[in-house]
Task: structure prediction
Amino acid sequence: MSAKKYDVAIIGAGPAGMTAAIYSARAGKSVLVIEKKSPGGQIVNTLEVDNYPATPGISGVKYAMTLQKQAQDFDAVFQFDEIKSIDEPKKEGDYFVIHGKNDEYEALSIILSTGLENRKIGLENEDKLVGHGISFCAACDGAFFKGKDVAVYGGGNTALEDASYLATICKSVTIIHRRDRFRGEQALVDALKKYDNVNYIMESTIVELKGDKLIESVVVKDKNTGETKEVKINGLFLAIGQIPSGADFANLVKVDERGYYEVDESCASKLVAGVFVAGDGRSKKIRQLTTAVADGSVAGSSAAAYIDRLNGREYV
Ligand SMILES: Cc1cc2nc3c(=O)[nH]c(=O)nc-3n(C[C@H](O)[C@H](O)[C@H](O)COP(=O)(O)OP(=O)(O)OC[C@H]3O[C@@H](n4cnc5c(N)ncnc54)[C@H](O)[C@@H]3O)c2cc1C
Result:
């Protein structure tokens, strides 16, 4: 059992969790941040962040390291562990018990900032090429492929929107989808048809990714004929879905039908007092750095206010 008890335990050291740490720690609370990989979350997968205000061109890794240092400078403690479950206290004001793979921790309040994981194809080479031609985010990384040939893999709204956006800046966009029709909305399908630089490879799956330092081509297999062909590309955008990351904390927060946490305006759980959610794992429309850190500031402040209330003080 971990000796030290904390005011606030934050699960997940992505941009939302680390921002929450800054806000709770600056409000004078003892803060533990628990991360199962290295701090930074999804953003470490991008070479350059162009749309975060006031830091044009910053690399994802530098952004994450700067944020971590900022949280540590306010005395937030970072711990490497993967949290499997959290027990709620029998009565409000008692400690939550947090069960990790390596240890147990105790805290008076919890911030879940476990984010998302992008669904991957599951091919050899894939992990190595993420951030080196393979991207999960056309809005973030599309500009790096201006005038180049790219492919989008998927058939839902995200794939269709990504393909339409990329068609405005890239030389060509090849959309590859495993079914004979798109899952996404007809309006998006129609919008995509307006572009004459979009090629369609339907009823096909990507079976191989080629490239050493950067992606160079994909091998595509026709589901009906079994025939394969190689498509040369400079970039591949995967839009085959995202899955909320982390363990099942549904005992603490209401989860919607897609697995996202539902919280109120102050990022508080409607189920259990003292539990807050920040970032991409929350039910919302826009999932970007700006919205993750906005959530982090709200959840971090809300958790601090909750601790003050437990201590009979009002948070200002
Ligand atoms: C390739 C790529 C490029 C992007 N580029 C941009 C961009 O240029 N601009 C922009 O605004 N946005 C960009 N985004 C989106 C942005 O990265 C996310 O919106 C943001 O990271 C969300 O932050 P988060 O903290 O909510 O979640 P995440 O970043 O997903 O972080 C969650 C963290 O929680 C950890 N975790 C999960 N479960 C557990 C557990 N059980 N125990 C312990 N730790 C756990 C994870 O390991 C992870 O580190 C990009 C995303 C990707 C994938």
